[in-house]
């Protein structure tokens, strides 16, 4: 959904040292599986904690070249010399899941970091709000003009531009009732719009 790293999986050394690593998410089960070399690892999708690993003895020590989730309990991968089908229930669980270190926003005393990319900002003194033009790289939050509460950094409201994409330059009317912005149109020309 977003164009930034929101979580990391700390791969076991056997997997991390593989030339190729493949993954298969399973949102219904809340798991994600990785295969590389001759190892399969299972992680919790939400916490990114390592839940278990399995080593598969492959012919000639070949490495996994793919990974597919199938059925209610299956994983499949192939190597240069064969196709392997593994039961997820056969992956030994760790006694204690191993957490993966996670990225975080910087923490600076006296500074509020808003986790939102912006092309431009404008300030509405009358309502004590910041306006931000949000690019389409923000996926579902993109191609919008958003208002941000200055005191908390929370997004108070957000509206699609309605014209073009990637709103850029932003300015407010003198009474703060209209936000003007520029945007890129389908023919790559510069357009403009406004939001009340």
What percentage of amino acids are in beta strands? 35-45%
**End-to-end distance:** 27 Å
Largest sheet report: 5 strands, antiparallel
| Radius of gyration, CA atoms, in whole angstroms | 24 Å
Which residues sit in consecutive blocks of at least 5 with pLDDT less than 50? Answer: none
Mean pLDDT: 85
How are the strands of the largest sheet arranged? 1-2-3-4-8
User: What letter string, H or E per element, gives the SSE order?
Assistant: HEEEEEEEEEEEEEEE
**Quaternary structure classification:** single chain
The tally of beta strands, per DSSP, is 15
**Helix count?**
1
Describe it for me?
The structure is a single chain. The longest helix has 4 residues, at 13-16. The model has no long low-confidence stretch (mean pLDDT 85). This protein is mainly β and 196 residues long. It is 2% helix and 41% strand. The strands form 4 sheets. The protein has a 5-stranded antiparallel sheet. A 4-stranded antiparallel sheet has the order 9-10-11-12, with no helix packed on it.
List keywords for this structure.
single chain, 196 residues, mainly beta, five-stranded antiparallel β-sheet, four-stranded antiparallel β-sheet, 1 helix, 15 strands, elongated
Brief summary:
By secondary structure, this protein is an all-beta fold.
Present the secondary structure layout.
Layout: H1 13-16, E1 21-26, E2 31-36, E3 39-44, E4 50-55, E5 68-70, E6 74-78, E7 83-87, E8 93-98, E9 120-124, E10 129-134, E11 144-149, E12 155-160, E13 170-172, E14 179-184, E15 190-195
Antiparallel strand pairs: 1-2, 2-3, 3-4, 4-8, 5-6, 6-7, 9-10, 10-11, 11-12, 13-14, 14-15
